[in-house]
C-alpha cells in the first residue's frame, strides 16, 4: 500500500487547467522531490495533497484511505509553505508548540518537542521572540520547526530552505537528510535547487505545465531522461544539445557533427547502447545530448589506453569554479560547456584536445524531443 497516491488529479482555476490529470504513488518512508519551472503547478499539487484547495477531479489517498474530501486537519499532514505564515502575536516557542497544543499533546511533551527542533534548527536563542523580530531565514526555520515538532503521516515541504544563506542551507539539507534516515517519514519536497534534489530524493518527479514528465530515482532522471526537457532541466550547467547526422558505417552507428570551416567531428556510437528506434533515423538529423562532465581533457600519458573519442577545439571562455573548470568551446554549430579538472592549464583562445565519453551520451528526436537512444 502506498503512503500517498494521487490518481488523475485535475485542478482548474477558472478556465485555466493547472494540474492535468497528475498521477503518482509513493511508498511509506519515501522522500519524493518535485521539481519543475516556476508556474508548472508544484505548489498547487502540494496544496491539493494538504487539502487546502479542493481538486477539480481525481482522488488523493493517504495510507490507502481516500482523503479527497477530508479537511487538512483530518489528513494528518505537516506542511511548510513557500510563503510560511507564522502567527504574528505568538512567540517562536508558541508558534512551534501550537500544532501540538491543538492536538492536545501534554505540556511536558510539547516542551520537549520545542527544545528538540529548536536545537536541530539552531533557533534555541530565538524562542521568546515574536516573528516580526526575526530575519527571513530565521522565520523560515521557525516554520520548519512548527512542522517538525509533530510526527504526521506525511511532511510536505514547499521550498523550505529558499531564504537561508548558502552555508545554513547546506547544513539544513544534511539535517533533513539525517532526520529522514532516522525517522523514516514520508516526505514530499519542492525545490529549485538541483543539488538539494539530487542529494535528498529517493525519487524525483519532473513537472512541466501541469504534467509529470518523469518520475524516477535521481540517477534515472539524470542519466536516463525520457526527453529533452528533463535532460535539460536536471543538471547544472545544463546538458549540451548538438545537431548531428546519424550514420550507419559497416556494422556501427556514428554521429557526424558538422562545423563551419572545420573538419566534421565523427563520434562512434557504442554498440551496447544501440536501440531499435535508431534504424529509422539513419541519414537524418538527431539531437545529441552530452553533459559537461562527459568531456575530459586528453591525458597523453594514457596513450592508446585512453577511452572516449578525441577531438580538439579552440577554447573561448575559461571559468574556474574552484573544484573544477568550465570551458566554453565550439562543437558543431554551437558552443558547448565542458567540465574539466582544476589542473587544466588552457587559456582562452588556445586549442585544447578533449575526449568525449560517448558511453554516456543520449539521442533525441529533434521534432518530438523524445529520447530515442
Ligand atoms: N488561486 C489561484 N488562482 C488562479 N491561478 C492560480 C492560483 N494559484 C496558482 N495559480 C496559477 O497556477 C499556476 C501554477 O502555480 P503554482 O503556484 O502551483 O506554481 P509553482 O510550480 O509552485 O511555481 P513556483 O516555482 O514559482 O513556486 C500558475 O500559472 C499560477 O499563476
Ligand atoms: Mg510554488
UniProtKB/TrEMBL annotation:
Chain coiled-coil ranges? none
Q: Which GO terms describe its biological process?
A: carbohydrate transport
> Which key words tag this protein in UniProt?
ATP-binding, Nucleotide-binding, Transport
Q: Where is the ABC transporter domain?
A: 4-234
CDD domains reported in the protein's UniProt record? ABC_MalK_N
InterPro entries in UniProt: AAA+_ATPase (IPR003593), ABC_transporter-like_ATP-bd (IPR003439), ABC_transporter-like_CS (IPR017871), ABC_transpr_MalK-like (IPR015855), ABC_transpr_MalK/UgpC-like (IPR047641), Mo/tungstate-bd_C_term_dom (IPR008995), NA-bd_OB-fold (IPR012340), OB_MalK-like (IPR040582)
Keyword Membrane found = no
Gene Ontology MF terms: ABC-type transporter activity; ATP binding; ATP hydrolysis activity
SMART domains for this protein: AAA
Q: What is this protein called?
A: Sugar ABC transporter ATPase
Instruction: Cite a GO CC annotation.
Output: ATP-binding cassette (ABC) transporter complex, substrate-binding subunit-containing
What span is annotated as the signal peptide, if there is one?
Answer: none
Source organism per UniProt: Litchfieldella anticariensis (strain DSM 16096 / CECT 5854 / CIP 108499 / LMG 22089 / FP35) (Halomonas anticariensis)
Amino acid at each position: 500500500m502506498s503512503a500517498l497516491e494521487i490518481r488523475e488529479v485535475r485542478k482548474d482555476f477558472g478556465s485555466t487547467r493547472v494540474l492535468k490529470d497528475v498521477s503518482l504513488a509513493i511508498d511509506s518512508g519515501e522522500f519524493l522531490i518535485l521539481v519543475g519551472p516556476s508556474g508548472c503547478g508544484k505548489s498547487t499539487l502540494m496544496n491539493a495533497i494538504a487539502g487546502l484547495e479542493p481538486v477539480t477531479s481525481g482522488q488523493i489517498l493517504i495510507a490507502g484511505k481516500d482523503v479527497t474530501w477530508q479537511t487538512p486537519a483530518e489528513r494528518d499532514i505537516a506542511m511548510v509553505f513557500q510563503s510560511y505564515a507564522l502567527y504574528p502575536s505568538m512567540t517562536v516557542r508558541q508558534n512551534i508548540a501550537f500544532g501540538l497544543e491543538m492536538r492536545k499533546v501534554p505540556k511536558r511533551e510539547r516542551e520537549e518537542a520545542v527544545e528538540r527542533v529548536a536545537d536541530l534548527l539552531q533557533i534555541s536563542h530565538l524562542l521568546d521572540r515574536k516573528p516580526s523580530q526575526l530575519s527571513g531565514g530565521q522565520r523560515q526555520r521557525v516554520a520548519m520547526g512548527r512542522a517538525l515538532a509533530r510526527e504526521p503521516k506525511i511532511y510536505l515541504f514547499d521550498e523550505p530552505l529558499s531564504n537561508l544563506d548558502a552555508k545554513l542551507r547546506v547544513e539544513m539539507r544534511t539535517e533533513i537528510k539525517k532526520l529522514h534516515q532516522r525517522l523514516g517519514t514520508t516526505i514530499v519536497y519542492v525545490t529549485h535547487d538541483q543539488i538539494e534534489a539530487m542529494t535528498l530524493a529517493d525519487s524525483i518527479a519532473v513537472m512541466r505545465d501541469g504534467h509529470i514528465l518523469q518520475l524516477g530515482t535521481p540517477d534515472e532522471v539524470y542519466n536516463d531522461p525520457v526527453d529533452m526537457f528533463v535532460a535539460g532541466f536536471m543538471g547544472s550547467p545544463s546538458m549540451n544539445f548538438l545537431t548531428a547526422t546519424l550514420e550507419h558505417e559497416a556494422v556501427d552507428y556514428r554521429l557526424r557533427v558538422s562545423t563551419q570551416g572545420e573538419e566534421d567531428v565523427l563520434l562512434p556510437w557504442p554498440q551496447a547502447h544501440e536501440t531499435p528506434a535508431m534504424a529509422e533515423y539513419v541519414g537524418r538529423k538527431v539531437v545529441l545530448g552530452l553533459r559537461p562532465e562527459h568531456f575530459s581533457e586528453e591525458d597523453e600519458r594514457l596513450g592508446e589506453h585512453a577511452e572516449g573519442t578525441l577531438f580538439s577545439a579552440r577554447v573561448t571562455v575559461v571559468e574556474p569554479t574552484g573544484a573544477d573548470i568550465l570551458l566554453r568551446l565550439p562543437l558543431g554549430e554551437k558552443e558547448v560547456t565542458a567540465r574539466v579538472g582544476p589542473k587544466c592549464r588552457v587559456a582562452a583562445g588556445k586549442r585544447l584536445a578533449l575526449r568525449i565519453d560517448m558511453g554516456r551520451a543520449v539521442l533525441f528526436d529533434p521534432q518530438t524531443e523524445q529520447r530515442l537512444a
